[in-house]
Amino acid sequence: MNYFFQKFGRILVIWLPLGWLLLFFMLPLVEMINVSFSEARRAVPPYIPAFQIGSGGFSFRPVLDNYLLIYEYWEDYLWPAINSIRLAFFSTLYCLLFAYPMAWWIARSNKSIQHILLILVLMPFWTSSLLRMYALIGLLNPNGFINDVLIWAGITVTPIQMMQTDFSIYSGMILTYLPLMILPLYASLVRLDVSIIEAAADLGAKKWDIFRTIVLPLSIPGIVAGSLLVFIPAVGEFVIPALLGGPEQLMLGKVIWTEFFRNRDWPVAAAIAIILIAIIILPIVYARYQDRERIS
Amino acid sequence: MKRSNLFLLIGVIAAAVVIFLNFDSSNIKTSQLSEAGGELKIYNWSDYIAEDTISNFEAETGIIVTYDMYDSNEVLEAKMLAGSSGYDLVVPTADFLARGREAGAYQDMDLSRIQNASNQDPEIQAQADRMVGSNSAGLVYMWGSTGIAYNEDMVTERLGDDAPTDSWSLILDPANAAKLEDCGIAILDAPTDVLPNVMTYLGHPGTSMEKSHFEAAGDALSAIRPYLRYINSSQSINDIANGDICAAIMWSGDAFQAAYRAEEAENGHVIDYYIPNEGTNLWFDVMAIPADAKNVDNAYKFVDYMMRADVAAANVNYVWYASGNEAARPDIDPEILSHPGIYPTEKAKEKLFVTPVYDAQTDRIVTRVWNRFSAGN
Questions:
Q1: Are A260 and B75 in contact (CB < 8 Å)?
Q2: Which structural domain range is residue A111 located in?
């Protein structure tokens, strides 16, 4: 029995998750690339696959039309792309600004309550994100709780328009993604050696200098990891802008939705999604490149 | 046990409990099937059937019904085009059904198998059939119009007693839209239900497929864009009922749901709906059977049941849409039958039109015009 585990245990532990990833992550991705090079038609499914294995054996007939169409109408896609990156960038920045002090505070608090604080951070994940978005709508609406309180307190006369603005989108993004920023920051801050800070303080460094020259540089891996975890889902986000945003906050997620559902053009939708993945991969490649620079 | 491991364990157990609870119910249902009259999987619009229609059918026939709901034609269409949806009966709007049939996603309905099909209003059914391009595609369940819902007091307060509450100009004229901006205007996020109507307002035929007509409609919408609160198909029901918005381009049934909710809440808001005198597009939701349906016989039984006069009337009295069922009329609430917003007058009927089924190229033009307008740039 022991021998069996030694021999097959390692294979199982490595190949089971790898097989899972190959099956449910790589295959859909390959299929999407396949669809993006396919020709649209009115049938079930609504495209002629570029790569097919059927009764006639293999066939491989990729078409570039979908990418050419995006190139031809680039103005229609560029603006939502810029908008997606802008909203995702600032969501990441705001998450970072909120998360950093919180992560620092958790990392510096008594060990016995750290676990409780971390669970509190994760607590929102226990309710459906859709439910949290509707709760937010209830707060931000013109007839919602916040406006009721502001009017009751005499701060404003007419309700402040908070829904369908950048503000409501950022609120939703921060509410959803803040834990993803706090956890990696906490992980890097909790490992930070307090004696270095004490030494700096003993040598007369001011608080701001300690933060700038010691704490911040040592927490960069956490900042990078947290920012990627927030930025990547935020840039392709569909639900939050659909529920909280107005049409001005058109993001790529909605553009893909329109291609898929309104134009019934699955191949073009797939092509945009592939381009979106390319946009997402760029910052990761850049971060890796930065890492390598630093090491060498 | 280390403290951190304890937390991990609690987390895993919590996750396992959640997964278990989610899987549970589906098992119970299948185990009952052997002794019953088989099963039937229906996919219909949300809030689109009386509360006891399904349970009565189950009690009568012993068929176990799975009833799922969608809130847009697009979602249904994507499921149908992907194939193997698992549903036996769905209720697409006629133009979506036409496209779906072209793609081979639906099977013909043999009307001779449906005794109560004779209850159908032949005029309504013929219009839907013309749109779909077949007279064996399915039977019209409900039909309605796109029009304007408005809050009587709020609109009168801003536009006076002679507010054009019989015309598209209430919202589409920038001068009126500017005055209604502060109380809130909303528009359906449904280009094929809005653009043709803007075209009729501008004097073009609503059935036009000309690029220039769509673009003119887009420009007219852009002119009122600054005054719009939002463009959304489901939010306005609640908002107009609560007084958060005061005028909206809406589907007839949604508008009456809002009016009903406002009345229930006794919040003092009176919501009314009208079919503009320039004309509007009609839509028909058709009961149809997907090509790969597994329980076809039960789907026929269900359609036959739905076509019964008493069942059809109960549904109308609940959802406040006009029924395709002629024989149901005597049992329909007189308030619904006499409302010109639900059952249009003969004079209004002359201006009603049916949007043609667009080809792929027109789809792209419509989407493009719509996206430009809704993005406001």
A1: no
A2: 73-264
